[in-house]
Amino acid sequence: MTLPEVQIVRHDRYDELFKHCVELEPIRTAVVDPRDRASLEGAVCASEARLITPILVGPEKEIRSLAASANIDIAGCEIINTKTSHAAAAAAVALVRGGKAEALMKGSLQTDELMHEVVAAATGLRTERRMSHAFVMDVPSYATPLIITDAGINIFPALADKRDICQNAIDLAKVLRFDEPRVAILSAVENITKKIPSTLEAAALCKMADRGQITGGLVDGPLAFDAAVSAEAAQEAHIVSPVAGKANILLVPDIESGNMLVKQLTFMSGAVGAAIVLGARVPIILTSRADKLRTRLASAAVALLLADAKRRSTPLLSAAE
User: What is the pTM of this model?
Assistant: First the structure.
């Protein structure tokens, strides 16, 4: 008789994340165009968990109709009425610039529609850093949480962009209390070759870290994925590195490889990933329509920790700044 194979998948690392938020004040968060059940329910549940204080920005009549039909209680939520999703994105960004919100949360509008307003030169939320997307992954088979970047915004980032993407991820890891940020710059091979441009950029990034242009973490590459996350694979490849085999940040070559890596971990390894945009004036919660409620809450928790770190270092930016 053959017994069935049983796999137990646990995601308890997010519990630790939520514990860090217990004593923190919720962040005023502009929820942009929450006209689908997942985004509206996610915002309300994040409010009930004392992670955010939501400001619902979008067509008020449609939001209220959705809440009533889905039995979602929005009685305690402030609503800013706009006619369209585009107007909602502009109004939400204006709330941040006016010091009335400390974070943004994507609702049912398209990502590029939201980001168009965020990156606008005169009225957006740019800083001196390149904005980048990060997944904070809980992979059941891996010993630590894993940040994967950039799999959501930068399509083919140049070397200077990757420097900012790397620094954004290291800064996030510190806020999330990683014991030591260890960045693996991924490529297909460990040897540096002009035939694979990502290996050349990896080498340059490592030297930039040596010269203090990237700070706060250990950086190594190029590393293939297996060598980055498996000590055995790194040993077999004769790689001696403080990062190889125990990376907790994976910097991918481009958005295509990052997107595929995240989805492979999600659908084949049972991983879940909180999603956040870094490098803007405030954290931007950028989840997808398919994300489960726990993932949305974890994303809000990451945003709260980032906003709290900002609270303790600088006052909230206003339009005058």
Answer: 0.91
